[in-house]
């Protein structure tokens, strides 16, 4: 053994001995205190189902899941390794068109297929998105990353009961409207770059009610615009598309179309259908 190796080995032994002495001097916490520590945050499957999850691994897929899978395959064909191309923005012209429902099930479908790990991001600054549905108000999240650019996004994401599916909540309310939309887009791009293997699915506020979706469109590789086939007027769809035109790939997904089959979907109860032409 060289003299240098002997010197390093001696230092390691001395450090180990110091750690043993420090551990012996510190009082050990009682076992009851250790048992009382909360487990790592995990969003349970029951909470996901209450928020509208239809996609579950291992079960027999119904028509709704098959239609979600078709949307998933089309979305993945447009994705590649570039950060922006892995960002999928799920938008709508108006509130209550099924946007959060589609975002959740699309993200779950990609994750459970094994194609890529997925980060589902609640970017609905109106506070009406997945953070509220999953009762995650007050958790740190996207707003905190906007306010603290040096903070690691990977430290804030929450695991779910579905393997390979994680979620980033909206963040703390005190940070609302603290930064312009461009900063929000930069934050999402940094987040995608820090998670090079993940697909990012963004649940955004309605285009005609907030400027956030339009600001994020420039950072996204593709937009899935959810359209309520029973309610949204053509002019509203066209106005939303105009706001999202900075994104290179725009796709329409018709939600709640009327079909004779009872197995199609459009909301939590399973009525209507979705198509992505």
Quick recap of the structure?
The protein has 277 residues and is of the alpha/beta class.
Secondary-structure map with pairings?
Blueprint: H1 3-25, H2 31-35, H3 45-50, H4 63-77, E1 87-92, H5 99-113, E2 118-122, H6 130-133, H7 142-147, E3 158-159, E4 165-168, H8 181-194, E5 199-203, H9 212-217, E6 222-228, H10 234-243, E7 250-255
Helix pairs in contact: 4-5
Number of domains: 2
Helix content: 25-40%
Rg, Å, rounded: 23 Å
Widest sheet: strand order? 3-4-2-5-1-6-7
Any idea what the CATH architecture of the largest domain is?
3-Layer(aba) Sandwich
The class by helix and strand makeup works out as alpha/beta
The count of helical stretches stands at 10
Largest sheet: 7 strands, mixed
CATH class term of the largest domain: Alpha Beta
CATH superfamily of the largest domain: P-loop containing nucleotide triphosphate hydrolases
Compute the separation of the termini in Å.
69 Å
Overall pLDDT level? 78
CATH fold assignment of the largest domain: Rossmann fold
Run of helices and strands: HHHHEHEHHEEHEHEHE
Count all strands and give the number. 7
- What coarse outline follows from CA principal-axis ratios? globular
Oligomer: single chain
Structure description:
The protein is of the alpha/beta class and 277 residues long. Helices cover 38% and strands 13% of the residues. The protein is built from ten helices and seven strands. β6, α10 and β7 form a beta-alpha-beta unit. It starts with a helix and ends in a 22-residue tail after the last strand.
């Amino acid at each position: 053994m060289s003299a240098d190796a002997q010197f390093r080995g001696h230092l390691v032994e001395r450090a180990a001995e110091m750690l043993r002495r420090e551990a012996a001097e510190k009082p050990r916490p009682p076992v009851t205190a250790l048992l009382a520590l909360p487990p790592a945050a995990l969003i349970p499957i029951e909470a996901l189902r209450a928020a509208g999850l239809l996609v579950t691994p291992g079960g027999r897929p119904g028509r709704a899941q098959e239609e979600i899978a078709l949307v998933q395959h089309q979305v993945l064909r447009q994705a590649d390794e570039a950060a922006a191309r892995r960002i999928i923005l799920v938008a709508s012209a108006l509130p209550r068109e099924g946007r959060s429902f589609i975002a959740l099930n699309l993200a779950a479908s990609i994750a459970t297929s094994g194609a890529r790990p997925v980060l589902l991001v609640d970017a609905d600054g109106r506070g009406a998105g997945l953070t509220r549905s999953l009762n995650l108000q007050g958790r740190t999240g996207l707003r905190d990353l906007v306010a603290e650019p040096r903070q690691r996004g990977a430290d804030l994401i929450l695991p779910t009961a579905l393997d390979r599916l994680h979620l980033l909540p909206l963040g703390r309310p005190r940070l609302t409207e603290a930064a312009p939309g461009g900063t929000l887009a930069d934050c999402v791009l940094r987040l995608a770059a820090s998670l090079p293997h993940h697909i990012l699915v963004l649940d955004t506020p309605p285009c005609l009610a907030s400027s956030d979706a339009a600001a994020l469109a420039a950072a996204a590789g593709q937009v899935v615009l959810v359209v309520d086939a029973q309610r949204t007027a053509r002019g509203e769809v066209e106005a939303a598309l105009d706001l999202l035109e900075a994104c290179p790939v725009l796709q329409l997904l018709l939600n709640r179309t009327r079909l004779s089959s009872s197995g199609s979907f459009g909301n939590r109860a399973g009525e209507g259908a979705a198509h992505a032409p």
